[in-house]
Design brief:
Number of strands: 20
CATH architecture of one domain: Sandwich
Strand content: 15-25%
Structural class: alpha+beta
Distance between the termini: 94 Å
Amino acid sequence: MNRRILVLLLISFCALGLVVYGTQAEGKKAGDNIIQGIVQDASGQAAENAAIYLIPSSDVEAMAKTPTEIKRDSKNDEPLEDNLAANKDKYQKGTTDKKGNFKITGVADGKYFIYVEPSDKEHLPGGDKANKAMSTAELKGKTLKILVSGNVPVDATYVGTSQCLMCHKAYENIKKTAHRLGISVVEKPSNLQDSSRFPEYFSGLKKLMAGAKFYFYNFDKSRGFDKYMISEKAPSDPASVSFTATFFKDSDGKLKFKTENMKDASDPARTYTVEMTYGGALYKQRYLYRVGKSLFPFVQYNPTGDEGYNDRTRKQWRDYHADWLFNDGTKKLIDPPKAKSFDKECASCHYTGYTLTKTPEDEYIAGAVNDPNGEFDIDGDGAPNELNIGCETCHGPGSAHVKAPKAKKASTIVSPGKLSTERASVICGQCHSRPQGNLNNDQPVNKENKMMLPGTSRNDYLTNYTTREDAAKKDYWADGIHSKSHHQQYTDFIQSKKYRNGNQLLSCANCHDPHGKNAMSHQAKAEVKNGDLCIGCHKDKSDIKAHTAAKVGMPHEMKINCIDCHNTKTMQTGAGFRKGLARKDGKNYWMNDVTSHLFDVPRKDNAGVKGVEPGKAMPIPYTDACGKCHNVEGL
């Protein structure tokens, strides 16, 4: 053989050997990592042809370092789904067979969120392994069992909580939650309501039933819903009073109130029937009176308020749209505007299976699912309706679930615990934020006046159920970050590190129990005031003295807890808590009553916002927790 040819052959074999060796070397690094498992629903039904994606935790960690964009089609407000949309062709994946089995080979070392994307309509994306990152070392050599949530069929209808509890008796405690006590018929709570955990629930109503007369005076058109000052005592200046409202229990046993014009004695008085209480489990209660076929809210009772406080928002009674009952221009008593009814403006976040009908007379009638133990026949069809948050609000309409055989039960209902964090959180978030819906009010309803079904993606929700994605500028403090108005916990939460990080993506249900199985405040899963809930995950922070020494340079000897620093109450819904600490200017520091869910620790000077005076950016965090021990003026 020609020497030159022999040399070339030897070189070629060597080169080939190097290639083979290189491939084997890489295989030893990544090819030996195999992730395998099975994807099913809770009934054991396989999710066939589902894609299982490995989303690198580093990508989610990188996203967490960017400011959350609260808008539709945002690229960073859904930590898993936005990353997947941007990198679907790059991420390693496997596909399930007919039995739901999958295998992903050649997995590079690292940490991953394991995300399931079903191909059928019976299951929803995510899976119960989606929200906690796991390393290849943890995963390889094991057979993962991934449970995915079912999905309600498009033709499913609501059946009511009573139907659900017939089989799911373990969740009876839902009756004791604040969600179940939002709307209650005066002196006739339904069989689905138990207020035993809230001893102050009826305190305001009792005051009205005993007879109370309110003076509405000093009209201020620049204010929002409380344009009037309200007092049970006649003000010193009679000319400032526009009208009075006197509550009484009538001979028919019903609670009513009569409005009388203090500007014009010839204007006939008007009488209204109060049918329901609105709220009351926490911090405030309002009262729903009927005009025609619709309900309207009036007067706010603040159980922690005091008439001695100068701040009108902190008093025991606060005006709530008395301007709907008196025209300050004509000085005449009026009926409330039909377009401002509770049915149209508020009910969607309370009623299970909300519907809305507009009559030829331009009245709005809200409907809800029929339930034999419901609160009231609100739509006039002869059957009681469920007027509070029920099982189907979070799990979806249950008719198909009720009829399905045992082997198909799980594929006909939504299980929030098996969804990605973004899809699970938005179930709560649709009402614990402040968007504008397609009725151009705070109700997040679509063009058919329907609420979002559980399992919907956050982007679909923003696109189809909102016209403004979240709170207006006035609903934040001057820093533009911390929420000022109430029911904005989700607004805060999606901007927190708990929602976007590279380790574990939390949803509301990680800390709160929607079913209310225990008696913890705010339906927490463990005690909050002693830190148990936080330490369950943050075990390295269990030594508070060491933690505060590392963070602020002082080991706090006194008893403080995680929430004292990380859960500043930036939002106000009722009167807030206690009068606060006196300032040099004679005013007082106040503590609000709704917790920020950013979980940050605001600094005492509220600095960092250009052009904002220190102390104005948000409520000063030392008003309560720190102020008990520290001299406020010396800080």
